[in-house]
Amino acid sequence: MQNRQNDIRPPQWSLLLLRLFVREHFLEEIEGDMEEVFMDDLDQYSIKKAKWKYVLGVFKLMRPSLTRLLSGSQKLNYLGMIQHNLLITLRGFKRHKTSFFINLIGLSTGLAASLLIFLWVNDERSVDTFHEKNDQLYWVFANFQLPNSITTWNYTSGLMGKSMKQDFPEVEEAVTIGNTGFFKPKGIVSNGESNFELDGLFASKNFFDILTYPLLIGNQENILEDNESIVLSESMAMAMFGNLESALGATVEWENQFFNKTFIISGIFQSPPKNATNQFDAVINYDLLVQTDQWAAEWNGGYAQNFLVLRKGTDIEEFNAKIENYMDDKINNDRFTLFVQPYAKNYLYGEYDNGVQVGGRIENVRLFTIIAIFILLIACINFMNLSTAQASKKMKEVGVKKAIGANKGSLIFQFLVESILLASLAVIVAIILVNVLLPQFNEITSKELEINIIDFILPLIGITLITGFLAGSYPAFYLSGFKPVAVLKGKISNLRGEEWIRKGLVITQFVLSIVFIIGVITINRQIEFTQSKDLGYNRENIVTFARKGQINENAQVMLAELQKIPGIESIANMAGDFLWGEDSGSGYSWDPSSKDDDNHLFKSPKIGYNIIETLGIEVIEGRSFSKEFMDDKTKVIINESAVKLMGIKEPIGTILDYGSGGTREIIGVVKDFQYGSMHQQIEPLLFRFREEGRNFVVKIQTGTEAATLQQIEDIYTQFHPKYDFNPTYLQDDYKALYSTESKVAILANYMAIIAILVSCLGLFGLAAFTAERRSKEIGIRKILGASHLVIMKILTGSFTKTVLISVLFALPLGYILANNWLNNFAYTIQLEWWIFALAGLTALLIAWITVSFQTFKAALVNPVECLRNE
Amino acid sequence: MKKTKLGEFEELVLMTVVVLQADAYGVEIKRELEDRLNETLSVGSIQSALKRMEEKGFLTSEFGEASQKRGGKRKRIYQATPHAHKVLQDMKDVRSQLWAAMPNIVTG
């Protein structure tokens, strides 16, 4: 028994804890006491209980009379110390006004920029996460195998949700909504006299039970019970009825591309929050979609988006393996692979390449997070640099303090207090700046961000402390390490090291700035390139507008009316959107002898007569669609890329097999042009023929724009009295394709300017300091006959070297980053040498300008001034 | 009495120190008091009472012998100062006078 006891030790960590906080003076006896009690307890209780009692005992030892004080055993006047430190800090600010303001401006600008980015990143990350069951909510995706690639769809069959709920125990609930890409009812609702344009959503009955769009009025149980019920958003109900109460039970008429029908308002929901990707004003039963289109309730077809609530603790990988081949039994086709993805994740991680997740918006989020960190880093470096530079001025203070007994700890404390105080001031200024700039920032990012100080109070304190600590740590530890005797004698021990660190910091700063410059030039050049590149068709003076309302209205009647307008040079109609590159189809084959090459995918817009002519697309062989030839669905026109893909010598007259759809005859070949945005390469394209397209493309005679548009509007309203006419210029729409990039570009421009400004501020301060430190040298040199120019050369020289070294580091880094970004585009600018030269030169020039102010001032000083006090 | 600044618990600990004589060290005091009061005390409470009283001048202390049971650590033996004896005596006097002055009803 005795032996056993000797082997059992009290828990080591709590022993360590005890040694950490109990006063050294008392430690031996208390440790002994604790051990004795432990031994006694071991006799009485189990080992576990004895140990537990020991731990408890240790915590009970935490009493003021037994614990050690934070700084040795004497009691210090803490309040007095802090007061003293604050006073010294404030005096320091007052005495060194220039560096104080440089630090304050630099830090607060940097902080403001990072705060804005932080707000933006925070908002991006919050998108779609508002659903109560967010952590259980998954979205069913499908990978579809094409001959040479895989495309990923976020839509699946309308039967998927219900069926999966039956077949997989992991699925707690399933919601099905109409595919928001193609089957989102849009149209005019009318309530008696007034008309409102409405964006709707087909949804399964349990929609409001599972997704968090809170109902304000209505019974969750049966709100979408029948096909006559409609649930409106709060804002729409308010707009239509002025209050919510009279809206309930009222009837509205809704005309859209799917139906023209009367509904009874069965409930009102709170409008989707700003950070929801799915924005809609009304919800109706999914069965209505089935009524208009039977395929909506078949396994073939991607009419729906299905969301699953999976049971807590479901292993997603296992689940994905289980559902992988679920479609194989449902349809006679094994090309589908199903998988689920967290619902909210789709916003940030929405891009798939060949069935593999490759990123999405998250890349911009990452990019800007890095930019924010860099900017903050640059600002912190400034602070470190300037404080280190001023070390010599503070050395006497440090020496005296140490000589009269201050220890290293208290000096570190003092310097940290100084930097944290400055950081706090900077944070306050930054918050003011953010408040001032937020409206502009929102405009650039098209967001509605707000800063709510109370929500951010903890992170802000965190940022203040971290920034203060980061910025103050080096000077604090460096300055506190001086040997008092050496300092008071005037011997500064490690000036060499200081010089190196300062240079290193400036280099880091300038590397970052130059990388920013390179990035900004690249981004701006690429945007310009996308706007000016010859796309193979004409964008000048082309106006497009779409017909809304019932889908079965004939476009030809309106087209005939419009053609009478004299100001229209050319007019045509098509289905799908030209710029988004809409409509592709597969299932074409042209070589009956080979089984392998069926089912090729083509971009296949459905166009009416005259599109090719209106847009100025060049026909290089054969002819365009024409009324004289009575063209119909069996005729197609292809582009050069398609000819190349098919490998046919004489395309005109070639017959394509279209499976059960019959055959198609090629009647013409057009020159390659950019269909869709420039993110995509020019792909094999096949024009199908349709007369009833709802998108109109009009070329207007130059000079008659206003009058012609007015005439078009008149005719438009004749056909669509309820709808607003909102035509857009193709040129503008094209620009809008790159709105994400443009936003990134604008933001990046601003951030780069801030980064460069902050860097320059630092350099400015440093130059001032150098000039001051070498003032005696300058004085002597001048007396000995040095000219102003020579002195400026001497002073600028070292900075030039530093910047040149930064350029060396920055160029390869900038090249890699810029190249990476450009890889997002199929067609890009070349990264030419002059971009880098320009970035380097700009940095050098900015550095010179910044430094020359100070050096010039120093060079002009009368030598008597700086030599007198000796 | 107020001047002595001796709390009730401190008084008990102090008296135990006097009772235990040469055995008056942390754990022993704890055991003795636990027996008499019939309740569990922590090392911390005893130790902090001892330190406080030492600071106030009621106790002096010196290291005693080490023992195996204490992991080789020495005991600190406490001794009451003459001042403490006097304060204890004063308190006893005050109390007994009060008891004497109490009517019989209370004692029942």
TrEMBL record, chain B:
Report which superkingdom the organism of origin falls in.
Bacteria
Residue ranges occupied by any Transcription regulator PadR N-terminal domain in the UniProt entry? 19-89
Q: What is this protein called?
A: PadR family transcriptional regulator
Species in which this protein is naturally found: Roseivirga misakiensis
Which classification does the entry list for the species?
Answer: Bacteria, Pseudomonadati, Bacteroidota, Cytophagia, Cytophagales
